Amino acid sequence: MRSYFGYKGRLAAASMLGLLVMTAGCAWQREAYPPVPDADRGASVQEGYVYHIAPGDQVNIFVWGLEELSSTVPVRPDGMLSTPLVENIQASGKTPSELAREVEKGLAPFVRYPIVTVIVNGFVGLPTQQIRVLGEAVKPAAVPFQKDMSLVDLMIAVGGLTDYAAGNKSVLVRYQEGKRVHYSVKLDDLIRDGRLEEDVSLLPGDVIIIPEAWL
């Protein structure tokens, strides 16, 4: 009996030691990520951003002088849409101006010098233009990117941090020049302590990972 409990005790101690080592390793790995560079923290990093139409968007196509050809249509899951006289136009991935020119080309055989304006309603955003929040957010989600969006805006959108979040161990994953780069972000300092100097401007495709605190 004594040897049995001795074996269980040694097993429990070994498991606890392994857990501590793994925890320390994870903590070290997270702390090893550098902060976001100053040049990439401000709104200027978002210069040149243009919205691209996505499946699920509602698109208002207005043909000047021809109300009967104007319509509001959804972009289908395959990225296509159809309008009066023009069927199966590729819309997903195009800017509103690019789509307007495509509709004009499609109408040209039927209408002399068509002039088209495209307005997007009910934005969804392409997956590459969404920001994903994983882990200990109140409502983890994929949030459509908006110009001038920062960590503060994103945390409002996902309801903030849970009680179990290790906010200062959070990681921002960003794709730069085709490579995945990791940065450390301090969400506890930003949200719970109000240190706005920890706010960071976001980019389409960013991923925020919020780990659980080890109790």
Automatic annotation (TrEMBL):
Residues 47-120 form the Polysaccharide export protein N-terminal domain. Gene3D superfamilies: Outer membrane lipoprotein wza domain like, wza like domain. InterPro entries: PEP-CTERM_polysacc_export, Poly_export, Poly_export_N, SLBB_dom. It comes from Thiorhodococcus drewsii AZ1. It is found in: Cell outer membrane. Belongs to the BexD/CtrA/VexA family. This is Polysaccharide export protein. The keyword Ribonucleoprotein does not apply. GO terms for molecular function: polysaccharide transmembrane transporter activity; porin activity. GO terms for biological process: monoatomic ion transport. It is a multi-pass membrane protein. One of its GO terms (cellular component) is cell outer membrane. NCBIfam families: pepcterm_export. Keywords: Cell outer membrane, Ion transport, Lipoprotein, Membrane, Palmitate, Polysaccharide transport, Porin, Signal, Sugar transport, Transmembrane, Transmembrane beta strand, Transport. Its main location: membrane. Residues 129-210 form the SLBB domain. Residues 1-26 form the signal peptide.
